[in-house]
Amino acid sequence: MSEETRSETYAELAAVGPYGVHPGHALITMVEPHPGHEYAYNRWYEDDHYYAGAMAMPWMYAGRRWVATRELQLLRYPDKSAIAEPVTAGCYLSTYWVTDGRYDDHMKWTVGINKRLNRDGRVYQDRTHVFTSFQDHAATVYRDGAAGPRDFHALDHPYRGLVLEVVDAEGPEERAELLEWLRSLHLPRALAGSPAAMVTLFAPTPLPGDRMTYVKQVEGVGTRLTLLWFLERDPRECWQEHFAARDGAVAESGLGRVELVAPFIPTVPGTDTYVGDLRS
């Protein structure tokens, strides 16, 4: 067995390179199971792929799945989205943290293991990747300063909801301005007194050329920011007051445009809770 697993190599790899807890990178993937395949997809992802295709990989140290019932899907905007067509597409969202400085190492493993899973018939084909990309951490803004969970806790802390927001700028320079405005001015004000404990901001990176063919190349590299709002309340309870006009606030800044604002709630691992609520 040692010859097959090359166990001696693991000790060598563990002795070098960064191994902090900062989420330097993330995998953010929003997927739509094909109609009629909702239950089968959910069981495949929870029972196999979440572990064998993600959490068992080196340097991917935290993960969480989220779901948008039909009620939550209908809260999304704008209607014409560069991310989802229709805007309600993508009822499952998975988020994963990757150790800072370990993106290249993780990508070599993830490409290799996903090719193996595909070859062994362990990849569920009746699904569409609506929004899938690895992203680099750009900033985290906290509502309560030094109090409360940090961003590296975010996928383990029992948050009751998450809002995915995707914002595009015209170019790399404009994105840098947008990021600074969000980080230093807008988000601190938006978080004050809100049900969101923190917002993590990420910028997408290109996928490798040898990625799996069912995952399209990343769009918006150099111009896009992805915001994850971690909520202490169900998003349906606070949507109108805190999230229903995110596109207006960004548009007024003149620095970018919102392409998607989408609420989710956490799945209940090991169950089919909410699967029956995905369609109208």
Descriptors for this entry?
Alpha-Beta Plaits; 280 residues; eight-stranded antiparallel beta barrel; globular; alpha+beta; 8 helices
What is the fold named in CATH at topology level?
Answer: Alpha-Beta Plaits
Describe the largest sheet. Answer: 8 strands, antiparallel, barrel
CATH class: Alpha Beta
Strand content: 25-35%
Topology:
Layout (H helix, E strand, L loop, with lengths): L1 H4 L1 H8 L8 E11 L4 H18 L4 E8 L2 H4 L18 E8 L3 H17 L7 E16 L18 E8 L3 H20 L4 E9 L19 E8 L3 H8 L3 H8 L3 E10 L14
Antiparallel strand pairs: 1-3, 1-4, 2-3, 2-8, 4-6, 5-7, 5-8, 6-7
Description:
By secondary structure, the protein is α+β, with helices and mostly antiparallel strands. The chain has a single domain (21-268), classed as 2-Layer Sandwich (Alpha-Beta Plaits), CATH 3.30.70. Helices cover 31% and strands 28% of the residues. It has an 8-stranded antiparallel barrel. It is globular and about 60 Å long. The mean pLDDT is 94.
Brief synopsis:
This protein is 31% helix and 28% strand.
